[in-house]
Every structure is written in structure tokens, then in C-alpha cells.
């Protein structure tokens, strides 16, 4: 806070020393001058109204009633805290070395055997083991089914290859008839010559597929 000195010449700020050792000269100020650090902060009317509203009581409410309600609330909170502390102090502590079982644990006691009464023999569980012969038959059937599936897949692949060759031969024949292919290569002529054999082989493959399915 800035200190002021007053003499017969008026009010002035006395000289002061800077951190680097140099001195500031004394400055004369006008009467009623307020330094910047002492000027109160500006507050808008809306903020002033909000502060007054927060500190004010609802219209028609007596301050004595509010004070009595506050005291009653504090009294109840203290009583509740005291009750909880007493309950925690009276809570039973577990005894060291003693195992505490859950409440829903059921202990089964064995009944004594009467004189002359024989204990019941344990009933043997029915055997769930399967017949070895049936297991072997099942495995053989499974293996044969897998083999048939593999053979069928191979025949289907072969059928697709033969059909592709026939389509290529048909394309070559169309080009030869239309004159688009004037000088066919040797491989193309060999394919056309083997058309009958490929058709016969395709019929045999289709017959095998139909017989297995």
C-alpha cells in the first residue's frame, strides 16, 4: 500500500529505493488522489443484484425462523454422527484365530449306525462306456463318408476344367467360321481336334457324380 506524507506544500509520495539501488524522486499528488491499487473493483449492477439476492431471505420469511431451523438441523446432524460413532464402537470385533462361517453354510452330520444294521453299500453308477465294436463302425462310416466327399469334390473340379476347355474350343471354332482367325496356331488346332474326346470324358465324369450323389 502506498504511503503519503503531508506538509505545508501539500500531499506527496515520499522518495523510495528501487531493487537495483537507485532512488525514485518524491512525487506530489493532488488532494483526493487515490492510487490504482486502492481503487475498488468495478461490479456491474447485475452482479450486485445477484449477491444481494444470494444473501437475502425469501420475501415474508422471518430471520428468527431461519436461524431456528439452522440450529435444529445442526442438532440433528450432531445426534446422527454421535449415534453412528456409538454403533461403530459397539460392533463386535472378530476373535483372532477363529474361522467365521457364512450364515447359509449347512453342516451335515452322519447318523450313527444302529446295532446289527449294516451300512448301505454305495450304488454303482451305470456304465456309460460304449461298445468298442460300435465305435469302430462309427469311425469307419465317418472315414468312408469323408472319402466320398473328397472324391466328389475332385470330380466336380475336373468337370469344371473340361467345361472350360469346351468353351475355349467353341470360341476357336466361331472365329474360324467367321474368318476372324485366319492363321490358327498349332495348339488351337490340337484343341479343336480333341473336342470329341473331351466331350466323352465330360459325360463319364457327370455319370460318376450322379451315381455317387
TrEMBL record:
One of its GO terms (cellular component) is cytoplasm. Keywords: Coiled coil. Residues 9-35 form the WIBG Mago-binding domain. Residues 70-85 have a biased composition (Basic and acidic residues). It comes from the Eukaryota. SMART domains: Mago-bind. Residues 1-10 have a biased composition (Polar residues). One of its GO terms (molecular function) is RNA binding. GO terms for biological process: exon-exon junction complex disassembly. This is Partner of Y14 and mago. The lineage of its organism: Eukaryota, Metazoa, Ecdysozoa, Arthropoda, Hexapoda.
Amino acid at each position: 500500500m502506498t504511503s503519503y506524507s503531508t506538509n505545508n506544500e501539500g500531499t506527496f509520495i515520499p522518495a523510495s529505493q528501487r531493487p537495483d539501488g537507485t532512488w525514485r524522486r518524491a512525487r506530489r499528488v493532488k488532494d483526493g488522489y487515490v492510487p490504482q491499487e486502492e481503487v475498488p473493483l468495478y461490479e456491474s449492477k447485475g452482479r450486485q443484484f445477484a449477491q444481494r439476492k444470494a444473501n437475502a431471505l425469501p420475501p415474508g420469511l422471518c430471520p428468527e425462523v431461519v436461524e431456528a431451523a439452522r440450529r435444529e438441523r445442526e442438532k440433528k446432524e450432531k445426534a446422527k454422527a454421535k449415534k453412528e460413532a456409538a454403533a461403530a464402537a459397539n460392533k463386535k470385533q472378530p476373535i483372532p484365530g477363529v474361522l467365521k462361517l457364512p450364515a447359509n453354510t449347512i453342516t451335515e452330520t452322519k447318523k450313527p449306525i444302529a446295532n446289527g444294521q449294516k451300512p448301505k453299500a454305495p450304488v454303482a453308477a451305470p456304465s456309460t462306456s460304449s461298445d468298442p465294436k460300435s465305435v469302430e463302425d462309427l469311425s469307419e462310416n465317418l472315414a468312408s463318408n469323408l472319402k466320398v466327399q473328397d472324391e466328389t469334390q475332385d470330380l466336380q473340379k475336373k468337370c469344371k476344367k473340361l467345361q472350360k476347355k469346351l468353351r475355349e474350343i467353341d470360341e476357336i471354332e466361331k472365329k474360324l467360321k467367321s474368318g476372324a482367325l485366319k492363321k490358327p496356331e498349332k495348339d488351337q488346332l490340337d484343341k479343336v481336334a480333341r473336342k470329341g474326346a473331351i466331350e466323352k470324358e465330360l459325360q463319364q465324369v457327370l455319370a460318376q457324380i450322379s451315381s455317387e450323389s
